[in-house]
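Example (one chain per record):
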Amino acid sequence: MGRTREIERLELRAPASPGAVPGMRRAVVDFAELHGVGHPPDVALAVSEAVTNAVLHGYREGRAGDVRVVACAEPERLVVVVRDYGVGMSPHPNSPGLGLGLSVIGRLTTEMNIERPDDGGGTRLRMHFANP
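Predicted structure:
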């Protein structure tokens, strides 16, 4: 019988602020490179966009909260989940961006799902990256 490869996991949680984006991006890219999963430049850009979306859109009207990132190195792919616990997916009339973040993420990933978690509200964005 062959041995099954254990799934390696990285979990991060930080206050949702612009300052959290670079550290989370770097940690996920380092994790991907360590395990040889995903394409690091694609992972870097997609994680930056996803965490930035959580920071800018997850919490409004001065409310504070966290952003959580979980990365799993599976044998054939990298799975990254970015979650906030804020207002969920809803129109943001005062958005400072161009609104291209999700389409950029969609082009960089092999699969992308946006979910509304039952526990704690907010938005969960699940991204899959094929191995190079």
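Caption: The domain at 8-130 is CATH 3.30.565.10 (Heat Shock Protein 90).
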